[in-house]
Amino acid sequence: xxxxxxxxxxxxxxxxxxxxxxxxxxxxxxxxxxxxxxxxxxxxxxxxxxxxxxxxxxxxxxxxxxxxxxxxxxxxxxxxxxxxxxxxxxxxxxxxxxxxxxxxxxxxxxxxxxxxxxxxxxxxxxxxxxxxxxxxxxxxxxxxxxxxxxxxxxxxxxxxxxxxxxxxxxxxxxxxxxxxxxxxxxxxxxxxxxxxxxxxxxxxxxxxxxxxxxxxxxxxxxxxxxxxxxxxxxxxxxxxxxxxxxxxxxxxxxxxxxxxxxxxxxxxxxxxxxxxxxxxxxxxxxxxxxxxxxxxxxxxxxxxxxxxxxxxxxxxxxxxxxxxxxxxxxxxxxxxxxxxxxxxxxxxxxxxxxxxxxxxxxxxxxxxxxxxxxxxxxxxxxxxxxxxxxxxxxxxxxxxxxxxxxxxxxxxxxxxxxxxxxxxxxxxxxxxxxxxxxxxxxxxxxxxxxxxxxxxxxxxxxxxxxxxxxxxxxxxxxxxxxxxxxxxxxxxxxxxxxxxxxxxxxxxxxxxxxxxxxxxxxxxxxxxxxxxxxxxxxxxxxxxxxxxxxxxxxxxxxxxxxxxxxxxxxxxxxxxxxxxxxxxxxxxxxxxxxxxxxxxxxxxxxxxxxxxxxxxxxxxxxxxxxxxxxxxxxxxxxxxxxxxxxxxxxxxxxxxxxxxxxxxxxxxxxxxxxxxxxxxxxxxxxxxxxxxxxxxxxxxxxx
Length: 703
What we know:
With 703 residues, the protein is α+β, with helices and mostly antiparallel strands. Its main location: nucleus.
């Protein structure tokens, strides 16, 4: 016979809620691991007192009773598994697995029996229903009546909140059956009453969740948070885990308490209690117990008088009372040397801590993800800039967490950490044209080719090209974006091959290259076409068709007002972030509608550009013809003026030769042969000569 039995998809009833998980029976005892919280219940074989098999709503169930009065219920078994379980109990636990069905007569009159942590309402020998007394939050009495109130179950749509029992009066003197009933309930119920003095009190601690400053009173079975507005009482049985995390600035510490069930304030649920301490704060603590009681209860983990940093004292006391280990960051070290990564989650900035067995994000909202519930992780290109990336985690239940705006320098460290923990890495392409078969990197070595990094470079280049194409050319000189993933050599080559498109700051960047003179000479040569290009941009036709919008921009313009109405007072940056989240979460079918609209807009744009191009060609040809005409007319006028000047000069030279010999006259041919004169000066001088030659000719004619 097998030494162990394992069952998947078994449901454990805890405080009225059914938590799924895995059940394992071995020689040593029974182990159940909750899939939701990761909490493990371990029942030693020597503690088992009774096992009951019965028919329940979810098939068949197993109820285990221990010698100290605890009851454990597991549902979801098949009827055929009874024989296997019965033989296992006989062989390893030496217990008979009894079959006991519930009474379904529907009577409301019976007998109440208290057994350990359980209240059982029986008719005859058969139980009708059972109430775990740990579910009871309050017990009140009236005349011949007892009322039980229960904790609200957040996981259920409908919760049972109250049950009333009618207790008939008895003839026995001196014993009130109603009070006896209530005392039996209160002795086992989860009713928190602050009786006696606190073990110790921590004053005015800064609490991030729930926000405020609270006095924390430490009692033997619970801790009491006392603030100016709210009070919370937290039983130690609801504490799942303790975390002590150093802040990135190395001057503060987070102390995180994970709770299940969470503390409640109205409709708000707080699954984590987060305290923030300064490392410089010290405290001297004296426990409100004598030394013998401290030694007996805590077995050397605490002493009556202690002193040290405030965060150390709080964590040490909590560890001793809750009896759970404190989780601290492991060997991970980021680019800046800190044990955490700065990122954003749900539009709020915080810190992500890679731990030895999971990730925790603080602080708004706090998130803890265990490695055993992760299906895969994904490194994605940042949606707003190429200088950052997103880290996505998807659990086996289908929940997705996206930590965005992580600096590119952290990529290598985080990738190595995830790879070392053997988590599945799955990358998804962001562009339709770049879809590739997904690679699993769980077994890749550190020195292997990083396909993701190369793909991010390609996506960055394509994005820059699209950004340059979509720019409307406002006339200002635009700088090229530098891709941080590319090496200096690649940038230099790109600069050299396309110097005309480079920014005006190229002189400053050129000192990175060893061949400084050659690069400077090249830039000087190519500056003139650069100016011409800018001049052509400045003279852009306002009647030209506008570029079509992308699918995302069309969707955003159509939904901008709706997002504003759903989130009154939202800022522009928050609106863009929210829109990005909504677009990312949109189904593929809905995105295809906007893709089709964008495609139609692109076709209309191409058609309009063709028509615009034909019109601009005809206009340019007309302009060229008019320019040629003007040039022709100017030449004709010039020729006439030259002829007139020539005739007047010849007549004046024949009639007054003496005057001509004394003056140093420069002819038109002499002036035009001067290389330093411009075309405009030539024109002006020729016109002046023609005008100056007219008066002598008129005088001659008069004489």
